[in-house]
Queue: 4 jobs
Job 1
Amino acid sequence: MVHQAPRLLENDMLNVSAPYPYAGSTAYIDDKDCLGNDVVRKVRIIEHRPEDRVLIGIRDRLAPRESASGNRTVRLSDLRETEQPEVHQPSPKPSGRTKGRRR
């Protein structure tokens, strides 16, 4: 009896996601739809480019023809790992006692 290695389907190989922010990973970007409403789009990072830029693939059913190929170059800092934006808590203001004495 001959043992064969399990066959991987092409779709299985293509669906493996890379960790954020590497090429192949999923990210989210704030954008506007064709009516001017704020939306969060799920994108895939395709390639890193110079000067903190990345090529992303937009797979949004709401605007499939936004660009000819569905790809766009954006700043890496415009992307985030989660769909929800990070909430930055303001640092508490120091009270008079923690400021220290003036000399």
Job 2
Amino acid sequence: MICKIERLLADITRRREADAMITIRQAAHAYRRANAASLPPLTAVCLALEVAGEQLHNAREQLAADNPDWRSAVLTAQNLLFELMAMTDASTEEGERLLTLYIYANQTLVTASLQADGGALAEIETIISSLHSDWQAVRAGQVLPGQI
């Protein structure tokens, strides 16, 4: 009887330790969040646009191959657009235009997702790619404090 209780206590202890341990996935997620929070805004914008473009490209390929996972890639791109919207300063004329473009892209992705429209995905992929190129050019020309 004592051995049974000891085994039960040992099992409970192991389960608690396992529950307390962070999984690799959780650790990677925490690292990405901390890294994203510490990225310079321009770097974060460029990275978000790059990944959104990749996701839209993947979505178009998956849609063409009748792979049902294409909507997941669209959702990832939409989430990145929401992040970009949150980062946009709409108090300026340029920021307002950029926000309007992000909203248009998101609404088009919603429609594309509902109608399985590869053409709409391609349109937004082109817009995202153009924005990415433009922000990359701005980033390349940016003077950093250590360069002065």
Job 3
Amino acid sequence: MAGRNLKSEEKELYNDITVYKIGLDGIAIITSNENNISDLTTQQVQKFILAKLQTGKVLVEVTAL
């Protein structure tokens, strides 16, 4: 089982493998009522998550994305 698509070299190595998708992940963005954010694009959420992963810091200023 893998949480990603097979890499091309894995497909070549196991050329007789059958892949079954058994689920999908979801992400919920929840903000405080005091936060004036009313609309985020998918691109903004991606940048936010990548920045968090790269820096290990919680980002507060979402509008700067």
Job 4
Amino acid sequence: MADLEPDASIHTFAVDANGFRGLVIDKKMLIITACGSDFSSGSALASFDFQETFLRTMFNFIGIIEIQFIHAKGLRSDRREDSLAEARDAIQTLASSW
């Protein structure tokens, strides 16, 4: 049976006199998302986009502040192929400078 106890040597944040402090510092993160609908700014569903805000908040909490997102959006629409191509291009561009 696997040991399900957390490893005490792995810490992602600390609490001190100033409050919480993230311990995962000097790290970059890339998050690639795919979604059937378009939640981008200006779209009819923009107010329902909690994914990026939530993920950014959670990873900022542990100290990762340099986060880039690439979204493949509207995959259940007629923009599917265009959106996937845009995401692929964004990944290629970022890969050359990462």
